[in-house]
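Sanity check

After download, print the first record. It should look like this:
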Amino acid sequence: MRMQGGIALAALLCAAPVWAQPGTLSYQGSLLNSNGTAVANGDYKMFFGLYNMATGGTCLWSEVENPASVTNGLFSVILGDNINPTREFTENPNLWLEVRVDMNRNGTFESNEVYSPRQRLAGTAWQSHRIQPNSECPNVIGGYFSNSAGSGQGVTIGGGRNNSATGLYAVVGGGYWNYATNYYATVAGGTNNIASGLSSMAAGAGARAIHDNSFVWSDGNYANSSRDSQFFVRAGNGMVVGISPLTYEAQLQVTCDGNGNKPHLYLWEEERNDYVRLRMANGGAETNYWDLASKEGVFGIYYQGAATNILTLTPGNSTNLMVMSNGARLSTGGAWINSSDRAAKANFAAVNGREILDRVAALPVTTWNYKGEPARVRHMGPTAQDFSAAFGLGSDDKTISTLDADGVALAAIQGLHQMVLEQSAQIVRLESQKEEQAGQIVALQQQNAQLQIRLAALEAAILNGR
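Expected structure tokens:
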């Protein structure tokens, strides 16, 4: 800026005034002659006025600094000591600063002592904090002039643009188009966030903390709280808790580095008679979900679709370590016990033990090892394909149920028992026939003896008859 006579005024500190303390502006500048040298040291009377136009217009605020000390052409003044300019900055988005200096020190400002053109305040002042008084607790508003506290009290807006904090003691940290509308509500920053619940908090982009005591963080897609006292994070590329993200992707990562045997995740239920639950569900059917749940020494895997515990671990039980919903269980001693309740079965059909025995006799039985085991680990039995072909049992030809193997063995034993009974009966019959034949031999022997006696007597009679 320059006045008539060639004296130049150069404003310092980013070429604009800045807030020094609540309600005041710190303005620094230099007074130079036309040849670039500093004006004489000393005290000068200076006028500062805020206008609503670059030329002409209305002076909205003014203040005279007398004296303003100039040393080596430099000066620094605090504006607003007498009349606070906060309102002018709040209500007027466009302001121009006019400066006058009494260079001849006659106590008046001559027409040639007005610096021209006026200096436009291009927004720095609006980006600084301003105090908005009210009846009880003043509001502190920073950032762009469009930031507003409405009728709120004790409100703080840290910066940004188009932000609004209207609730009692509400806070908006910064960002763009954020609203904190209820008592003690807070928007940390970001854009398009709303904290309308009592003591609620929103952050990110598109977060809606609309319930009391709720916290919502969103990744740019709109995310609304659904109930009071809820912590809701929407993060499309996952959330990391711990020291650093893992190399593979996951929606939730919990990472530690030498956690001293402490759990990575701890779930606690205050009600002793209720379960601690971890729920898993997908798709649109919220009623079909899985729960991992525990309560006082019992751990269960629960499926809502079946409305029952699919598996229950009971390490404190003296009988069963694991119980399945279908009745099968693993005993504490390590034996697997199949379900075989008559009430759980249907479509009974008799079997022929002798036929089963014949099929068992023809069934290939070898020793072998699983491909995932060392060759020295040996097992004995048929393949599932041979077993299925021989008996047609089970759901496929890749597995053999222990229950089916046991059933085949029992049926074969029954067939063998039947065979043994038949052979025993045959032996009894043969023994009986043998005894009968022995009696017949004795009778024949007796008849033969009698015949020999009679023959001897006959021979004797014949001889005597000579």
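If your output differs, re-run the checksum step. Summary of this record's structure: The longest strand covers residues 59-70.
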